[in-house]
Amino acid sequence: MENWFSKEGPEQDVVISSRIRLARNFKDFSFPSLADKNAQQKVVDLAVKGALESGIENMTYVSMKDLPDIEKEYLVETHVISQDLKKSKLNSGIIVGDSSVSVMVNEEDHLRIQSVLPGLQLDKAYEECLKYERASVLQQNYAFTYEFGYLTACPTNTGTGLRASAMVHVPALVISGKINSVLDSCGKLGIAVRGMYGENSGSGAHMLQISNQVTLGQSEQEIIASMEDIIKQICVLERRARTALLESKGIYFTDRIYRALGTLKSARIMDSKEGLSLLSEVKMGLDLGILKGASTEELVTVLTNVQPACLQKMEGRVLSPEERDQERAKVLRESVKNIE
Amino acid sequence: MENWFSKEGPEQDVVISSRIRLARNFKDFSFPSLADKNAQQKVVDLAVKGALESGIENMTYVSMKDLPDIEKEYLVETHVISQDLKKSKLNSGIIVGDSSVSVMVNEEDHLRIQSVLPGLQLDKAYEECLKYERASVLQQNYAFTYEFGYLTACPTNTGTGLRASAMVHVPALVISGKINSVLDSCGKLGIAVRGMYGENSGSGAHMLQISNQVTLGQSEQEIIASMEDIIKQICVLERRARTALLESKGIYFTDRIYRALGTLKSARIMDSKEGLSLLSEVKMGLDLGILKGASTEELVTVLTNVQPACLQKMEGRVLSPEERDQERAKVLRESVKNIE
After folding, report:
1. What is the DSSP string of B115-172?
2. Distance CA B202, CA A302 (A)
3. Roughly how many angstroms between the first and final C-alpha of chain B, as a whole number?
4. How far apart are the C-alpha atoms of A160 and A176, rounded to whole Å?
5. Residues of chain A whose pLDDT is less than 70?
6. Residues in chain B with pLDDT < 50?
7. Is B253 on the interface with A (CB under 8 A)?
8. Rounded to whole angstroms, how far apart are CA atoms A280 and B10?
9. Per-residue pLDDT tens for A104-154?
10. Among residues A219, A231, A241, B333, which one has the fewest Cβ atoms lying within 10 Å of its Cβ?
């Protein structure tokens, strides 16, 4: 599967990634949590047939029960699967291939088709999802009514079944306190804002996930266009806040960025939260041209690589928390050594 | 005048410098604060005669009123003159030459003869002071009684007029909290302990000035020998504490030292207190062999150079506090760039 985070994308100084998720269910089977073993297997079979028909190269189904824990954790960290799928006791799995598209099977819905792309590319990510979603073997079987649209296990997804979201990096809005009015506006527009890893996580890395709440009463194109508009506005506000910080705080702002870099270059032990937070400052320094020596996509790759399961996958073994923190410090030192 | 801080000395991993000060007054004149202009001038004349007779090369008298403020501040920072002499309204000055000896004239006493040497060398510093103190033109005129010894403006200096002190760098005793029992013991032994710049200063740089309180009832040799003993014990305790920290905290301790170095290598603005505190950690790292690339005396030179007046003297002009903090960060980056 392609790593979205190692590629260049539009508006990447602010928008880390764009993600489209389509929820789909088949009309002949109960939703996964209520489906029996037989029905669950039939859903898997249908999903695999869809993959073959999609035309996406090398699409393969992997059952959750065949995946080692570290691999599952890695897929969570890289946003390919959800925490729920990781813990699922059902006959569930993922389909991945040579594209940005992945499909969770028997998660909350029968199918959760998603595509993640770097930068702001919601429309492109939607098109990618459709390559799989449009397979006729699937289309014939979707639970769909003209009144409600696509039916889903949770009514909040009913209608388009579409969730369009973007991960935005807004350190200057956070530092300057201007983020609050952005959050207010998002709330009024029916836009959900969360920290980096879903509902219960903080935003120490100054990353926010922005997504639509309403899936009903608007077309897919309308939802995506409106999300792109809002995200572009956030980009403008964040860039303005960065320039304002640089102008008003001058040397203190520059100092803060260089100190973050200095700590990354020298620490011997570092937890995940601190690492992300320092990388966030360094990314801003690179975006503003204060620092040189790495591209935004290289920084985002580092952001991903220093997560616990990614570190363990690179090392090829389970690490104790202290070993992880040491390994993280080592990876970070290596990753930022050419930045100045 | 020689810079004590740029030379190597014994026990320099813990003892930054040794200082001997002898208070002397002339019997025919009132103490400086009560002496009239005429008497003050005669004291200066006698002090200068003593300099000529001392045999120390190039001894020169410089009147305080002829010194620019930055120079005065520089002499305070390098411990050549006291705050009191800097502010003095009397006809006062200093005598310096090609040795470690300097003489404050018309400070609290007519003469304050001092020698500062790197590392633990109280006996050597005392010998240096005697080169000036033994000049016969001075000896003939000292206020001395067989009952009290040398008479001084403040009775706490009466007797030997000797203050033997050492600046010790004890980061591990401070970090481990063991410093408190050392301070207790010093108190019981009649040893005064102060922060880096006298009574009212903190010890952010983990530097303590240790000096004798009693000047009466013991010979100079006894005072010096007892101070050297105590300081050597502190060296042993500090080294033991460093090793213990390294063994018990391991990577966390190493991490702390590397982070201090990383901040020094990258900050763009830094106040004096933080600079000293970070240099203190880096010095400990060098002393313990964790870091390489600079000698202790090089580090102590940096410690001295980043003080406000030293910075201004190097720049050749008065700097605003913000300019100083930027200049300090620049000097520090340059100074530690080869340490790894």
Report:
1. EEEESS-HHHHHHHHHHHHT-HHHHTTB-EETTTEE--SSGGGTBT-EEEEEEEE-HH
2. 41
3. 33
4. 37
5. 1-2, 4, 196-205
6. 197-203
7. no
8. 46
9. 999 999 999 999 999 999 999 999 999 999 999 999 999 999 999 999 999
10. A219
| Shortest distance, CA B251 to any CA of chain A (angstroms) | 7
> Exposed, middle or buried: residue B232 (CB in 10 Å: 0-12, 13-18, 19+)?
middle
pLDDT, tens digit, for every residue of A35-64?
Answer: 999 999 999 999 999 999 999 999 999 999
B73 neighbors B308 (Cβ within 8 angstroms) = yes
CB within 8 Å of chain B, chain A residues 309-328:
322, 326
Interface predicted TM-score of the whole assembly (ipTM), two decimals: 0.81
Q: Which residues contact B268 (CB under 8 A, 6 or more apart)?
A: A251, A254, A255, A258, B326, B329
Q: Which of B259, B265, B268 sits opposite A254 (nearest CB)?
A: B268
Does B246 reach chain A within 8 Å, measured CB to CB?
no
pLDDT of residue A199: 37
- A184, with CB counted inside 10 A (0-12, 13-18, 19+), is exposed
Per the DSSP assignment, residues forming a β-bridge with A166 are A18, A210
CB A5 within 8 A of CB A17: yes
